[in-house]
Amino acid sequence: MARIGVFVCHCGENISSTVDCAKVAEIASNYPGVVYSIDYKYMCSDPGQNLIKEAIQKHKLTGVVVAACSPRMHEPTFRKATAEAGLNPFLCEMANLREHCSWVHFREDSTTEKAAELVRVLVEKVKHNEELFPIKVPITKTALVIGGGIGGIQAALDIANSGHKVIMVEKNPSIGGKMAQLSETFPTLDCSQCILTPRMVEVAQHPNITLYTYAEIESVDGFIGNFKVTIRQKAKSVDHKACTGCGLCIEKCPIKKIPDEFNAGLGNRAAIYVPFPQAVPNKPVIDRNNCTYFLKGKCGLCKKVCPADAIHYEQEDELIKVDVGAIVAATGFDIKHSDFFPEYGYGKYADVIDGLQFERLASASGPTLGVLKRPSDGKEPESIVFIACAGSRDPAKGIPYCSKICCMYTAKHAMLFKHKNHHGKATVFYMDIRAGGKMYDEFVRRAIEEDDVNYIRGRVSRIYEKNGKLIVCGVDTLLNSRPVEIEADMVVLATAAIANSDSEELAQKLHISYDPYHFFSEAHPKLRPVETNTAGIMLAGACQAPKDIPDTVSQASGTAAKVVALFSQDELTREPLIAYVNNNTCVGCFLCQSVCPYLAIEKEEIRRRDGTLVKTVAKINPGLCQGCGTCVALCRSKSIDIHGYTNRQIYAEVSALFNRREYAGV
Amino acid sequence: MSDLINKTSQFFSSGIIDLFIGYKKGRLGEGKPAFFTKPDQLSELIFDENCIVNLAVYLRKPELKKYSKIGILANFGTLRALLQLAAENQITDGQYLILTVADGKVLEFANLKAIEEYVANNLPKPNPERLALLKEIESKSREERWDFWTRELSSCIRCYACRAACPLCYCEQCLVECNQPQWVGVPPTGLGNLEWHIVRAMHLAGRCISCGECEAACPMEIPLGLLTQKLNMTIISNFGQIPGTKREPDYALSTFKVDDKENFIR
Q1: Widest pairwise Cα distance in chain B
Q2: What is the pTM of this model?
Q3: Hey, which CATH number is domain A137-226+324-332+500-574, 2.40.128.630, 3.50.50.60, 3.40.50.620, 3.40.50.1000?
Q4: Which of A95, A190, B43, B48 is the most buried (most CB within 10 A)?
C-alpha cells in the first residue's frame, strides 16, 4: 500500500497570501494513500526539510509530495532531503503551488481548491513512481578543438595547461586563423602577429596538444564524455617528419602565379607553399588543384630538389579515429567579399577592396611589405574612403545583423593610413559608430580628433570612376541629407562578417543547432553562452557570432573552463529520467530512430543462448538520451516509456483531474 | 497461367523455395489466399483481377517461421506493402522470392530496388468515385462530419478484422491491448470505437499503402479506408511522401525537411 506524505509550503506569503495552505493540507490528508500531511511556512528551510525527513522515517512513507514552488527551484533540495531520510530521491515529487496557482490567481475558495487538486494529481503520480538510480557515464579526458585561430589556440592552451590532452584540427596548412592576417589590432595598435605567433608556437610545442593541420572533421558520433571523431588528414604530399622546412621546393616550383589566400588574393604563391613565413608548422604542402605534377603528371621539380627526400606525391588522405570527451568548435568566420557589392563597382575597379585586403596591404608581412599601394597601379593613395556597414545591418542584402568588428577596424584602418601618410585624406561613411568596449570609444575619438579622419554619417549609393579617380557618391544625413561626392584613390569596404561556407555542414556533423545565418547557436544567449544545446560541445569565437579578439579570447577561456570542469570528474552522473524500451513488445520498426533529435536510439539484437537471432529491437543510449519523450509519442505499440514520466504516471495524473469532485472537500 | 505454375514448380524443384503464398479459386470466384508447400498442389494456383487480398499480411506470422525460404505472388498492393515493410525494418532484401504477373507475363523481382522501380512506373491514379465521396464528406460542416463518423463508427463491433487484414498492423502488442494504462476503451461503445479508429488512422498516417484490405475486411461495411486515404492525401500534398514506394524509411511523422510547408502553424 502506498504511504504518501504531503508537505504544503507557504513560501513565506508567496503561496499563503492567496491559498489557504492549512486547508490544502487538511484536504490532502483525506486523499487515498495519504498517511501524513502538514503545512509549514518555509519547507525549504532546515526545519522544513527536517519535517519531511522525520515524517519519512516515522510514518514509513513510500512517496513524498512537496507542494511548494517550481521544481526548477527546489526539486533538488527536496529530493536530497528525501534521500537523506533513506528514501529513493525519485519517490519525491513537487506540486507547483506558486507559479501554477498562487501567483496567477486571487485569494478565492477556488484558488485553494485548485491547489488541492494540484496536490492530488501529484499524489496519484507518486503512487506509480519507481526507485531510480543516477546513470554514470565515463569520461574520456581529451578535448577536440576544431579550428586553430586565436579562439581555438586560447581554448587549447587553457585546457592543455590544466593537464588534459587536446587534439587540434585546422583545415588550413597553418594555424593562426584570421588574426594572423591582421596588421595591427585595436584599440592598442599592437602588431597582431607579434602577439599571436608565440601562442602558435606554444601550441605546436605543447606536450599535451596534438596538432593536425590541413585536416578536417569527417564525422562525429557518440555523446558527452565519449565522442568518437574521425579526422580526415588531407594529403600534404610532403612528409613533415622528414621535411626540414628549407624552402628550396617553394623557390623552384614553376607554378608561382596562384592567388595567395593568406594575402586575400593580393599576392601570389607557388603550388607548393607555406601560407606565411611564421606559419606553424612551417613546412609546405602541395596544392594539388594547381600543381602541374598532379594536373598533367609531369614536373616533379620539388621532389628532385628536396634535399630531405620529403616529397611524396603518392600520399593519400588519411582517416584518423580519435576518442574525445569534449569538443570545442572554434571555426571562426568569413567576410563577404567585394563581389557582393556590384553598386560599389566590383569587377570594374581594382581599387575597391575589402577590409581584410587592407589589412594585408598595411601589414609588414603583406605583399607590399606594409607600404600602402593600391592594387590597380601600385600608386600610394592620397585619399581613401572607408565604407562601414557594407552589407551588415542591411536586410535588403539579407544580413540584418551588425558585424560588430567593423566600426573599430574601420577607425583603425583610417588611423593606419593617416599614420603612414600624414597628408592623406581619410573619409569614413558610417551608419552609427558602435564602439562599446574598454578603450574603444576613446580609440574612435582619437581617429576623429587627433588623426583628422573625416567621419560622414550616411550611406554610399554608388562609386564610379572619373579621370582616374573613384568618385564616391553618398549622403551626409547630419547636414540635412545633403548629397556628397568624395574623390578617392582607393575605397575600403568594411564588408559583413558571415559564417563559414561549410559551417552548416559542420553543425550537422556535430548535431548542434545554428541560426538563420549559419552561425552556431549557444545553449542560452545570456546564461549559457559558451555551451551548445548538445552536451559536451562548446563554442569559442566568431563561429557563434561576429566577435573581436578580446571577446573571442574571453569566450575561449570560458569554454576551456567548461571543458576542464567536465574533465574534473571521472564519471558523469546524469539524472535517470530517460527513455527505455520494452524488448518484449518492440517490433523494431525503427521509425523512432529518425525522430530522435539526439541520435540516442540504437539497434539491439536479441539472441537465444545458442546465438540464433530472435529479433532486433530499439535500444536507448543512456548517455545520449535527454528524456524529451518524442519517441514515446511516436511508438505505436507503446514499447518506449520514460523513467519518471511513464505512461502510467501521466495517465494517473490525467485521470485524477477527471475524477476531481470525489474528494474535493471545499 | 501455366507459365506461372511452371515457373513456381521449378522454384520448388530446384529447392529455392519451400513455401509459396499465392491464390486459388474461392467459392464465390474470389482469389483466396493459398499456401503451397509441394509442386503438385500448384495446379490450383491462379492469378487474376479477383486476387485482391494483400498477401504481405502473412509474412510476419509466426507459423511461417519454420520455412527456410518463402515465395510470394504479389499483387500491386502487396508489392507496396513489401516496400513499406522493408522501410520499417520488417523484411530484408532477398529474404523472399517475389513474383507478380503483368500483361500475362510472370515477373520475378531481383531485389527491392526492382520493386521500387516497378511501383514507381505503375502507381495508379486515385479512384474518382472514392475522391468524389471524400470531397462530399469534406464539404460537410464540422458538425455534420462529426455526426457522419460517429454514426458510421457506432456500428463497429471491435472485431479488429481491419487490423488483422492490414499488412502494416504487425505490432506484437497493439495499443488497444495495453491495459497499464488502458488508453483505448475496449467495449464496442461510442467513445471506445472513436478512439480505436482515430488511433488506427493515425498509426497508419504516412504508412498506409492504400490496398483497401481494412475496408474490405470490415463485416460492418464501415468506410474505414476513407480515413487513411484522407490522411495520406494530406501527407502527399504537404510533404510529398508516398508510403510504400521506397525501401528506405521516409516517414512523414518523424522527418523534418527544411522546405517542409509550415502553413499549418498560425
Answers
A1: 64
A2: 0.68
A3: 3.50.50.60
A4: A95
Would the CB atoms of B89 and A590 count as touching at under 8 Å?
Answer: yes
Q: What's at A352, amino acid-wise?
A: V
Instruction: Please tell me which of the candidates A587, A634, A648 has its beta carbon nearest to residue B181.
Output: A648
- List phi, psi (to 5°) of B104: 80, -5
* Cβ within 8 Å, pair A637-B183: no
The CA angle A9-A14-A19, to the nearest 5 degrees, is 70
Helix, strand, coil percentages, rounded to 5, for chain A: 30, 25, 45
pLDDT, position A158: 98
- Look at the domain A335-497 and name its fold: FAD/NAD(P)-binding domain (3.50.50)
Contact of B178 with B171, CB cutoff 8 Å: no
Nearest to B171 among A616, A637, A651 (CB): A637
Which residues 6+ apart lie within 8 Å of A574 measured at CB? A134, A135, A136, A137, A622, A623
**A531-580 per-position pLDDT tens digit:** 998 889 999 999 999 999 999 999 999 999 999 999 999 998 888 999 99
Q: Could you give the ipTM of this predicted complex?
A: 0.91
Residue B104 backbone class (left: φ over 0; alpha: ψ -120 to 50; beta: rest):
left
Under an 8 A CB cutoff, do B180 and A648 touch? yes
Q: Which of B65, B179, B180 to mutate to test the interface with A (most CBs of A within 10 A)?
A: B180
Residue A665 pLDDT more than 70? no
List A104's β-bridge partners, or say none.
none
In a shared domain, residues B118 and B134 = no
Which pLDDT value is given to residue B1? 59
Chain B contact for A133 (CB, 8 A cutoff)? no
Candidates A584, A589, A637; nearest CB to B90: A589
Left if phi > 0, otherwise alpha if psi is -120 to 50, otherwise beta: which for B65? Answer: alpha
- With the C-alpha atoms ordered A561, A567, A569, A575, is the resulting torsion angle positive or negative? positive
Interface of A with B in 572-631 (CB under 8 A): 584-585, 587-595, 616
Residue A86 burial class via C-beta count within 10 angstroms: exposed 0-12, middle 13-18, buried 19 and up:
exposed
Shortest distance, CA A502 to any CA of chain B (angstroms): 17
What's the rounded Cα separation, in Å, for the pair A486 and B28?
Answer: 95
**8 A C-beta contact, residue A387 and residue A491:** yes
Residue A401 CA to residue A416 CA, distance in Å, equals 27
Q: Which is it for the CA torsion B81, B85, B86, B88, positive or negative?
A: positive
Please report whether residue B263 resides in a domain: no
Nearest-angstrom CA–CA distance, A459 and B166: 67
Distance of CA A342 to the CA centre of its chain: 33
